[in-house]
Amino acid sequence: MQPTPLTVEIWSDVACPWCYIGKRRFEAALARFPQRAEVAVVWRSFELDPNAPAEQPGPYAERLAGKYGTSAAAAQQMIDRMTATAAGEGLTLRFDRTRPGNTFTMHRLLHLAAERDCQDAVKERFLAAYLTDGEPVGDPEVLVRLAGESGLDAAEAAAVLTSDRYAEQVRADEAEAAVLGITGVPFFVLDRRYAVSGAQPAELLLAALDRAWADRQGLSLVGAPAGGRAGEGVGDGDSCAV
Predict the structure, then answer these.
(1) Can you give the residue range of the structural domain that contains 119?
(2) Which of 67, 141, 190, 240 could share a disulfide with 194, CB 3.0–4.6 Å?
């Protein structure tokens, strides 16, 4: 009898640089996990700023400073740390190019991608487009092109954008995040028994995979800081929060 796949649900936003870093670290952990062929990964929707406009002009450091109530210099230090950390994972973050905008439509397309078995590829393309390539992700034509580049049928993606398809699924993911107490992303839930908050090192994510595979009982937070809540430490930590 084949073992039941271990399901890893990852709440994440395309606008979150720590989510890109967390994706790479999880991939590194999964590559070392002996039962990796028995792992099913599902990307769940989470909007850091549900009220964001299609595109937000202005330097990224200024927007970051405004969001977290800090100085532009402190915000730049956060950016430098994220950039250096990402480089250590083989990623190039270009905050000088980033054109932030509303990510709701991207999440809808990711639900379509899940149904077409190309969710991870679309997630990867969207993250790179947003955080490295400086694509105007608020432009529907750009989203259709990106979707087509990563395995979705461009015509079907365009049809989603002219409808409200998958809106309920996105809201359901976000409602579930609230029930689970998720306030920051990335947030990993393994078999609905174990959880990891933030872009933790690959070693910790691998330990969580091992533990979830060996003992599938009770949802408990793996690697939470003492006295901390899931999602704390945004900007100067390893996750992005609302």
Answers:
(1) 6-241
(2) 190
